[in-house]
């Protein structure tokens, strides 16, 4: 990375693995020990954090991706070219010889998909002294707990970011977090859960108790994406549901990434949390009507038109409170 990179005044740093997504289709997903026939479909550039980075960039948000890729690899060349084509800044990428190419296997079955991530076994990420100022001036760092733990001395890094008023947004799925990671998770300002990630953190406690613990430790916003049921958003002062719009589902890959980055984009624009939830729901909902991991990459104005179309009267008819 060239350490003389000049960051823009407001920008996001996304930390996470890029990968080549291998798409297959199947009639059903087998039970453990079973067998299913699959048809190879195609390869596409993916990775949950890079997908979100491309959505950010599509909205005009200056976005850097941090990852370590295999050096002198055709797949790496494809990944970097794709990132650049989507407007993502690649100056913080690292390259190393002795790591495998990043791969993800995606099996599509009718209305759902199953994702198998091939463990990349990447080295610890060292933040260079000449890079630190770029991180400290970011508006948000967007990542997963697992990816952030791959930074050497990650808790010191997180505390340094917090001391410089950088907001942290975590994408939390069951595969990207350990239940023992709460000390790290509660450093986050915005937490995005899918249902399985929230259940893993909640454990045997009630929903309200789990949220109370988050907010007592400094979390500002927690949102759970609920697929076709929409989303549920909580803050210290209120909770509300945002219902989904019924869509013809083509591919759900990247829908959560789209929701999360859309939500943060609206917060960056100074919009309210409720406006952010509406915008994110519309963006995530539209993304499932498109094939591929980057179906959520769209212009800001396009999604705002969808919000107007989906949620009339500024969305007031499409929101209902559970507690205010």
TrEMBL record:
Signal peptide: none annotated. The keyword Transferase applies. It holds the Pfam family PfkB. The keyword Zinc-finger does not apply. Residues 45-294 form the Carbohydrate kinase PfkB domain. SUPFAM superfamilies: Ribokinase-like. Keywords: Kinase, Transferase. GO terms for molecular function: kinase activity. Gene3D superfamilies: 3.40.1190.20. This is Carbohydrate kinase family protein. It comes from Enterocloster aldenensis.
